[in-house]
């Protein structure tokens, strides 16, 4: 894969993760990651591969499923988070207004 294509794909994964956090709120996204992590682990074990090849296989399996687009978006966001964690999943906090966490420093 050309480095330009790799950067483009990385950007899309990071953007998808940011969107998923915005749509679900931080706690909702944590729950989504916890929900899908066993599926990623099973795919990695079955295919003897890492997170990104497992993501590719899961995306292929998602084709034709109900709500295919949203499922693929969630899988990409979760795969990105599992590959490069950005949130602390150990400490779930109480939901805030609109289930959105305030940003640091505010």
Would you kindly provide a brief summary of this structure?
The chain is mainly alpha-helical.
Describe the structure.
This protein is mainly α and 106 residues long. The protein has one domain (3-85). It has 3 helices and no strands. It has helices at 3-47, 51-62, 68-83. The radius of gyration is 15 Å and the shape is globular. The protein starts with a helix and ends in a 23-residue tail after the last helix. The model is unreliable at 93-106 (pLDDT under 50).
Number of strands: 0
Strand-residue proportion = under 5%
Question: Radius of gyration from the CA trace?
Answer: 15 Å
Low-confidence stretches: 93-106
Biggest β-sheet description: none
Shape: globular
By DSSP (H or I, 4+ residues per run), the number of helices equals 3
What is the mean pLDDT? 86
- Class from helix and strand fractions: mainly alpha
Helix content: 55-70%
Instruction: Report the order of strands and helices.
Output: HHH
* Cα-to-Cα separation, first versus last residue: 41 Å
The count of domains is: 1
């Amino acid at each position: 894969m050309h480095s330009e294509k790799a950067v483009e794909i990385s950007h899309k994964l990071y953007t998808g993760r940011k969107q998923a956090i915005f749509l679900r709120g931080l706690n909702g996204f944590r729950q989504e990651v916890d929900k899908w992590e066993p599926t990623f682990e099973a795919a990695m074990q079955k295919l003897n591969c890492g997170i990104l090849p497992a993501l590719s296989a899961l995306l292929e399996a998602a084709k034709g499923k109900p709500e295919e687009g949203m499922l693929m978006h969630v899988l990409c966001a979760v795969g990105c988070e599992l590959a490069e964690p950005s949130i602390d999943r150990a400490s779930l906090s109480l939901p805030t207004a609109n289930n959105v966490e305030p940003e640091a420093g505010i």
